[in-house]
Amino acid sequence: MRKTLIDQFCKLLLAVATLSFIINVSVLIYGIFSRYFIGHSPIWMDELSRYLVIGMVLLVIAPAWLHNKHMRVDFIDAMLPTPALNLLKFYIWILTVAISGYIAWYSYQYALSVSRFTTIGLGISKTIPIMALPVGFACLFFVALLSGPNLKRNTTTTASR
Amino acid sequence: MLIAMFGTFIINVLLGVPLFLSLLVTAIVGFVIIDPILLPRMLPQQMFGGINVFSLMAIPLFILAGNLMNGAGMTGRLMRLAHVLVGHLRGGLGHVNVLSSVFFAGVNGSAVADTSALGSLLVPAMKKEGYSTAYAAGLTAGSSLIGPIIPPSIFMILYASLTNTSVGDLFLAGIIPGLLLGAAFMAMNWVYAWRNNLPISGKKPKLSEFLRALYYAIPALIAPVIIVAGIVFGLVTPTESGALIVAYVALIGLISKELKLSAIYSALRSTAILTSTIFIIMAASSVISWLLSYAQVPAQFASMLAPFQDNPILLLFMLSGITFLTGMFMEEVSALILLTPIFLPVAMMAGIDPVHLGIVVTLNITIALITPPMGACVFVAAAVSEINIVSLFKTIWPFVLLAISVLILLIIFPQITLLLPNLVA
Fold first, then answer.
1. Which residue in chain A is spatially nearest to B24 when comparing CA positions?
2. How far apart are the C-alpha atoms of B325 and B371, rounded to whole Å?
3. I need a labelling partner for A144 at 20 to 30 A (CA). Which of B32, B119, B159, B236 fits?
4. What residues of chain A, 62 to 101, have a C-beta less than 8 Å from chain B?
5. Distance (Å) from the C-alpha of residue A109 to the closest C-alpha of chain B?
């Protein structure tokens, strides 16, 4: 049940991120088209493109973590006996939960603190794009918390990827 | 402070903590030492600011273009053309491997993608022809270094965003060094084939075969021309050029009916994941870069190297040595983000052209992709060649030395790098 919930949640995050990427490509193509065929490029184009990519990047941190896609050196995994490997996994898990929780909270505070400033192109509150940071790290926090440290129970050890 | 930060980073990396988390822990340690009050505000501000740069948005687009190109079967067509051009020579498959990397580099700026795409197809074929597995895997990993040097290049876009250098100039400057690297690997392969008396596998192709291979490869060969010409002549920004090339590859793939919708979704999905893993490292590295600036490390570094400013070549050798060692133990994107702001003021004071510095640093960082203990391309090459990683790291050194020779040539003769940008300017 818990695993299905996490999997479905990560699939949803990936789908939203993919959609955001498609919109980004469309916005950029529209910008080029309007510059050469209408005579001017909308001033909000590059800002929207940046925010869409940043949104995509931060939404995918959690699915990438779940599927062990974040870059890491995993020499040590194959060398350690199961108890030591479990200890290491627990350390990485607790670090992920602590740091993602910390960043989610403080970036949320930071996003609120800039609410009275507006962006130049879109004219929206700066809080809106910056909220990608707390949302992305909050997703990582919940996915990591619900997934648990994924400790091994058997006696053999294998590399993580 | 530096020792504590470096120690924290190395310990966490060696323990297998994901790199972005290792960087964030290191940043937190740095803040605690310098001024803990700054931490809650500066950490999110620098993370967001580090990736909120328009030119960086080109990176996912070029990654997507490469992924779509694979899905649309363009990689296979480029390999076919390379086969027709050099497959009939002694050591033909080795030459095909290198030339395919040159072609592939024109659309995809990632060396790891190059190793993975070409290695899985060419290494088994090379083994059948009598190449040793270690050599075939080493050549695949080595020649993939051409990817980030010939435009488009992820590392160059990143360098340009950090230094306000023209992406167009950097892309132009990378063409000759990339071709030089390709020529060096082909020469090495020729010597290997001659010494091991490898058979000549194919016969010289007829003109009609060449024309047919060229006809099918033309859509893929046009892609780098669109990218470079669009940026250099100011028609589009690097990011817009990325979007154009994505639309172009998707259109070609859909018209030729080789690109299925499922392949497009798969390409988008894998691009989103790869982009996220790269950008989150950039965001975390930006925090450390800010911390180093706050602690005036670049200024201290510049004063340390002040005696060498009269000799730009010696200075470039020293900077290259530092980059090489850093690249061996650090992920390439974070190494580039951390080192570039430190190197640039020193290089500018010595009169080194920032475009030349960019190519030297990019090649240096790229070489780190095949050096132990963290060379990502060697890991991929070992996986696709089914060879033990330790034995591949032992046999990779001739390829590393060859790439270093090209680097030395570029340092001594900046004209090689600056020829095309100066011509166009």
1. A99
2. 10
3. B32
4. 63-65, 67, 69-77, 88, 91-92, 95-96, 99
5. 8
Helix, coil or strand: residue A41: coil
CA atoms within 13 A on the CB side of B107: 29
Q: Which of B280, B213, B214, B271 is nearest to B50 (CA)?
A: B280
Joined tokens for residue B110? 């990632």
Q: CA nearest A51 in B: which residue?
A: B52
- What does the DSSP assignment read for B215-249? HHHHHHHHHHHHHHHHHHTTSS-HHHHHHHHHHHH
What percent of chain A is predicted at pLDDT more than 90? Answer: 67
> Percentage of chain B surpassing pLDDT 70?
99
Q: Which of B224, B174, B411, B175 is nearest to B316 (CA)?
A: B411
pLDDT per residue over B324-333, tens digit each? 988 887 778 8
Q: Which of B338, B80, B310, B361 is nearest to B202 (CA)?
A: B80
pLDDT at residue A63 in the model:
95
Confidence at residue A140, expressed as pLDDT on a 0 to 100 scale: 97
Pair B141, B378: CB distance under 8 Å? yes
Interface touch A18/B40, C-beta < 8 Å: no
- The structure's pTM equals 0.86
pLDDT of B261 > 60? The answer is yes
Strand partners of residue A125 = A118
Q: E strands, B117-239, where?
A: none
A18: nearest CB among B17, B57, B272? B272
Nearest residue in chain A measured CA to CA from B13? A73
Contact A73 B57 (CB under 8 A): no
Residues of A in contact with B52 (CB under 8 A): 50, 54, 129
Interface probe, candidates B10, B12, B21, B64, chain A, greatest A C-beta count within 10 A = B21
Tell me: the pLDDT tens digits for A94-145? 999 999 999 999 999 999 999 999 998 899 999 999 999 999 999 999 999 9
B269 contact residues in A (CB cutoff 8 A): 14, 18
User: Terminus-to-terminus CA distance in chain B, angstroms?
Assistant: 44
Task: Give the residue on A whose Cα is nearest the Cα of B21.
Answer: A96
The ipTM (two decimal places) reads: 0.92
Cβ contacts of B53 on chain A, cutoff 8 Å:
50
Neighbours of B136 (CB within 10 A): 25
Q: How far apart are CA B175 and CA B194, in angstroms?
A: 29
Cis preceding-peptide flag for A134 (omega within 30 of 0): no
Closest residue in A to B248 (Cα) is: A29
Q: Which residues, in sequence order, are CB contacts of B348 under 8 Å at separation 6+?
A: B354
Residue B380: CB atoms within 10 Å = 24
Element (H, E) at B343: helix B332-349
